[in-house]
Automatic annotation (TrEMBL):
<keyword id="KW-0479">Metal-binding</keyword>
<protein>
    <recommendedName>
        <fullName>GTP cyclohydrolase 1</fullName>
        <ecNumber>3.5.4.16</ecNumber>
    </recommendedName>
</protein>
<comment type="subunit">
    <text>Homopolymer.</text>
</comment>
<dbReference type="InterPro" id="IPR020602">
    <property type="entry name" value="GTP_CycHdrlase_I_dom"/>
</dbReference>
<feature type="compositionally biased region" description="Low complexity">
    <location>
        <begin position="1"/>
        <end position="24"/>
    </location>
</feature>
<dbReference type="InterPro" id="IPR043134">
    <property type="entry name" value="GTP-CH-I_N"/>
</dbReference>
<dbReference type="InterPro" id="IPR001474">
    <property type="entry name" value="GTP_CycHdrlase_I"/>
</dbReference>
<dbReference type="GO" id="GO:0008270">
    <property type="term" value="F:zinc ion binding"/>
</dbReference>
<feature type="binding site">
    <location>
        <position position="149"/>
    </location>
    <ligand>
        <name>Zn(2+)</name>
    </ligand>
</feature>
<dbReference type="GO" id="GO:0005737">
    <property type="term" value="C:cytoplasm"/>
</dbReference>
<feature type="domain" description="GTP cyclohydrolase I">
    <location>
        <begin position="78"/>
        <end position="255"/>
    </location>
</feature>
<dbReference type="InterPro" id="IPR043133">
    <property type="entry name" value="GTP-CH-I_C/QueF"/>
</dbReference>
<dbReference type="GO" id="GO:0046654">
    <property type="term" value="P:tetrahydrofolate biosynthetic process"/>
</dbReference>
<comment type="similarity">
    <text>Belongs to the GTP cyclohydrolase I family.</text>
</comment>
<comment type="pathway">
    <text>Cofactor biosynthesis; 7,8-dihydroneopterin triphosphate biosynthesis; 7,8-dihydroneopterin triphosphate from GTP: step 1/1.</text>
</comment>
<feature type="region of interest" description="Disordered">
    <location>
        <begin position="1"/>
        <end position="32"/>
    </location>
</feature>
<keyword id="KW-0378">Hydrolase</keyword>
């Protein structure tokens, strides 16, 4: 399989850089053992990194040749490799119930749950003038968050609360949901998801006065590992005026209020 494009500055897959993890070569570089660790120690370290659920960067780590192949080819290649994974697990791919799974998974990855990796799918903001001169905070509560843990590739499900104070422009309400949805359609860690949503809204709304709070359950915590079905994880980004204690408390009061039912 050749993933590299024709671009001359594209690094070769056989030459992992020192930032190997960023280019998707983490396993290659571990196995060739530049670290001096045994394979067992490396496995332990990889588990630990996964369970720590920390992000290494605000930007999703992407290969420079991420879009050198189109979505149709990505689906074909993922189908091929997922069929192999199922086979290695010992599953009989001639079974009627299983034979369509590799393609189903490949299409789901590319067209649905990881479609937010492609900037072409980023929602275009519709901005309006703040004609009402509404200068208080606007809070969009309880936005559904559905994303996938990048360490275990299982879902993270929860709620996001997004708030901003207009600097002269206002955004269509559904666009706030769309921005959350777009960044959720990536392998993620919750901290990075929170910051990516906040930074995008600051950019679009031309203000630092943006806050994002996410409360979510990680299925990698509830269905494996520590098997805790009750715990949830809260992350927050308070920009500009939201860093002021009184403004932050006002936001938290709105979020704590029960939502209206209609
Ligand atoms: Zn995880």
């Amino acid at each position: 399989m050749k993933l590299n494009g024709t671009s001359s500055n594209t690094p070769s897959t056989s030459q992992p850089t020192t930032g190997g993890q960023q280019n998707g070569h983490a396993l290659d570089s571990h196995r060739t053992d530049s670290t001096g660790l045994s394979a067992w120690e490396v496995d332990e370290l990889v588990d630990e990194i996964g369970d720590a659920h920390g992000a290494s960067s605000i930007d999703t780590p992407m290969r420079p040749d991420a879009f050198a192949i189109d979505d149709d080819l990505k689906i074909d290649l993922i189908e091929e490799h997922f069929r192999e994974i199922m086979g290695i697990l010992g599953l009989d791919l001639t079974d009627d119930s299983l034979k369509g799974s590799p393609r189903r998974v490949a299409k789901m990855y590319v067209n649905e749950i990881f479609s937010g990796l492609n900037p072409a799918n980023k929602p275009k903001p519709t901005l309006f003038d703040n004609k009402f001169r509404y200068n208080e905070m606007l809070v969009e509560k309880d936005i559904t968050v559905q994303t996938y843990c990048e360490h275990h590739f299982v879902p993270i499900i929860g709620k996001a609360h997004v708030a901003y104070i207009s600097s002269g422009k206002v955004i269509g309400l559904s666009k706030l949901n769309r921005v959350v949805e777009y960044f959720g359609k990536r392998p993620q860690v919750q901290e990075r998801l929170t910051v990516q949503i906040a930074e995008e809204l600051k950019r679009v709304l031309e203000t630092d006065d943006v806050a994002v709070i996410i409360d979510a359950k990680h299925l990698c915590v509830s269905t494996r590992g520590v098997h805790d079905i009750n715990s949830s994880t809260v992350t927050a980004s308070y920009g500009g005026k939201f860093a002021d204690e009184a403004t932050k408390q006002e936001l938290l009061r709105y979020i704590a209020q029960p939502s209206v039912t209609i």
